[in-house]
Amino acid sequence: MTRPFGAQPGYRPTPLSAEERTRGEANFAPLVAQMLVARGRFRVSADTPDQVELFQGVARRVSDMLQRPVVSYANGREIVITFGQQEAPALALRRRPSPPAT
């Protein structure tokens, strides 16, 4: 069986406790918010479900902090956090309601 480069045989990371996850989200959120404002996205390695959950929580916190939609995309190796699409107000006004069902 192959293992990732640099991984120790039999190494298994310990899952984060609820307190560690909460502290991690609180500490990473300002950094991620700063990077989103400066560069429009933040990318980090996230190769375990624990890391993906942590950074998804960070994305939610950043969305609340910036009062803008923030989305995250994970592929099993990394996670990208970026701004979500906002519908332009003019487009929302032009949208017609769908006809009532009969």
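[next item in queue]
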Amino acid sequence: MSETARNGKERDKPIAIYYEQPNWFVPLFKQMDARGVHWTKLDARYHQYDASSPEHEYALLFNRMSPSAWQRGVGHGIFYTLNYLKHLEDKAVRVVNGSRAFRHETSKALQLALLERLGLPYPKARVINHASQAASAGEAVGYPLIVKPNIGGSGAGIKRFSSRNELQAAVEQGGLDFGIDNTALVQECFTARDGIITRVEVLGGKHLYAIQIHITGETFDLCPADICKNTKGEELTRMACPVDAPKTGMTVEVYEAPQQVIADVERIMQNAGIEVGGVEYVFDERSGRQMYYDINALSNFVADPERMLGFNPYGRLADFLIAEARVHKAKQPTRLVAAGEQA
């Protein structure tokens, strides 16, 4: 029995970090350890819960489940996680990036609906549930276009088509991948003006920083932690992605986002329920339109952040989680551990 239990005081409940891809979160794990707080890891790949449990075990749970898990053979965890997060919320557990956030993270269709509802610009798109609908959707959207799975992650399954004939051939050959929920977007294909994509990160739903990514061509995988150079050509130390991840050739620089963009992004995240994440937007080369095109609740911070940003966002994230756990604890009725109760 612990000393706190013998004294009849409330148990020290850990902050739980629920994750699927361990390499991505090593920097956060280190920051939690450095602060000496009580925290624990929960592996989303192999997990179970009791539907009748009162869930007094955790001070807070931070959801880091990835929608790209299906590419690593653990797609079963995606739908399971939706159920688990709702269970925790129903039991009054404080969840950061909870069920509403994860629903948006795992549905490009919901992201479009959100942008439409907020009156924000986004690439023209049709949502389809069968390959036979791709060509007719393509006529409505126009070419060039991309077809991408509704549940994506790291550019998974995205293909570009320049004409109806090219798209129809892919349909007939079974070359379209609709992902694990058999839903896809047929979406206009933009060309980033000056080869620049902008990503705005939030913490606690508020603007944290913004970066501009200089792409090398048409790419659909924009993990900021895996960009190995800044715009000065200096090598960056990659902290979150695996050390053997391929070098992309892309470069990155810190950017001061316009106030209107910051307001848009914070509004997007508030409505999506995302407290930690990023939004990407682009100016289309052909039309000049600004378009928001990705809402991400599983954001890996930029590589070599202290050098790039002048601060460590993983440290700020750890501090945010600790502060949120304390706030939530203060709102809860005090639960005493009886002298004879097992700790």
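[queue empty]
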